[in-house]
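Good day; I would like, with your permission, to put a structural problem before you. The record follows directly beneath this note:
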Amino acid sequence: MTKTIQGIAASEGIAIAKAFRLENPELTVKKQSIADFEQELLRFDKAVAKSGVELEAIKEHARKELGEDKADIFAAHLLVLSDPELINPIKNKIQNEQVNAEFALNEVTLMFVSMFESMDNDYMKERAADIRDVTKRVLAHLLGVTIPNPSLIDEEVVIIAEDLTPSDTAQLNRQYVKGFTTNIGGRTSHSAIMARSMEIPAVVGAKTVLSDIENGKLVIVDGLDGQVIVDPNEDVIKTYEEKKKTYEAQKAEWAKLVNEKTVSADDYHVELAANIGTPEDVKSVLKNGSEGVGLYRTEFLYMGRDTLPTEEEQFEAYKTVLECMEGKPVVVRTLDIGGDKELPYLDLPKEMNPFLGFRAIRLCLKMQEMFRTQLRALLRASVYGNLKIMFPMIATLDELRQAKVILFEEKEKLQTKGTEVSDNIEIGMMVEIPSSAVNADLFAKEVDFFSIGTNDLIQYTLAADRMNERVSYLYQPYNPAILRLVKMVIDAAHKEGKWAGMCGEMAGDEIAIPILLGLGLDEFSMSATSILKARSQIRHLSKVEMKQHIETILSMSTAEEVVSFVKSHF
């Protein structure tokens, strides 16, 4: 009998294939006393070393198949495997309590996982998933149990699992794995992010798929609407085959726009740019017809390692991106560490509320040697393309002015030494704090552009942590308060003859796009895979007509009213 399970649409597309249950082996741990703790420590070290070899192989596979930023996940796993904060307590337990390695590993792991999972922060919860993934591999070696290898699948299937670890996802063979669905997870989980980069349809957080779906059963994964259909009848299969054809045809139509400019139905041009994390991401940017890079998140250069990147390493990364973009604009955001992104080697003190704490530009202005190194690398790379430098988390004019002074000092030092630096570098700032949105008219006099970071602007304006499920209903991109702030920023930029972009998730949202077009947004920056869909949508919208509706939209009382209005009119 056909059954429909609702989950979270994590990666677009339709997959129809038989179920393959990817279940982990039973890793039962029993406490045992040992006579020779040195022998037990040696056994533990061998299991760790073997796991390290496997993770290096998976990292290399991920790098070749998925790009450098996805491989960085396994660089982080390797750091977990060598982290003395985790490894030393395990060894101490073996030695001091004279217990077997399996028991010591399990006890310490459970403590760390429990600690991280109790935090109301998706990033920290992902760290729990990383620790669980890595230590499970070590435990399997200690128990002499083989972990399933998804790369060995050799027929068309839909993966069914409790969750897919990053190492599971990285090993999926796209030729045979047509889609996957999991009991747990969300759109920001590693498996969801990797599924989108691999363009594998996925539904996560479906809660009961493992208990409701038997091995070999025919399954449909609808990554468009977040549904999993189990044991579909002929009529249902036919309906979804048509839906799949329609989606594929739509993708083919979007693909025709790859070399086109982004113009509205009434011939207004806006720029569609892409958000990237590493030079490897540029391939997807170019493949999807981006008109530039609207956000280069440089913090990925600093993560997944145990020391700061050198000036030369950074210079090469920035130069590569600028050269590959062949004169198209590249907006580079200076280091935005803190909040949900930590660098263990900086050894910063723990904070009660890191999102409102010592992060981004605040950290850079205090740790100037690190900041100046990055700015020098950027300035040196500027001659290889169309570079724009953007400062994150600006709250006050004083911060912006300090950052600009440091930048100009480094530019002057380089030029004095005879190093060539471009004279056409635009300097901008992220608008992600309500104070900078309210004072946008003042900031606009001192920057060349704004980029609105809606992910933070929304949570700060509505005082609702976007990672906290209990207040997630308050994360409202279409709330009139947010739309009014966005309008203030765009209007302030235009009054001074400057341009305004947006690099938050809202920029690629099909409900938001008509509103942002009417508000006069100049640049929309989003994930590369969203660009062609957004370009197609904008081509069917009239900017003049949307502008006529803005006053009505801004006078609405709730986000729900805004959504209803846009859906009924466009």
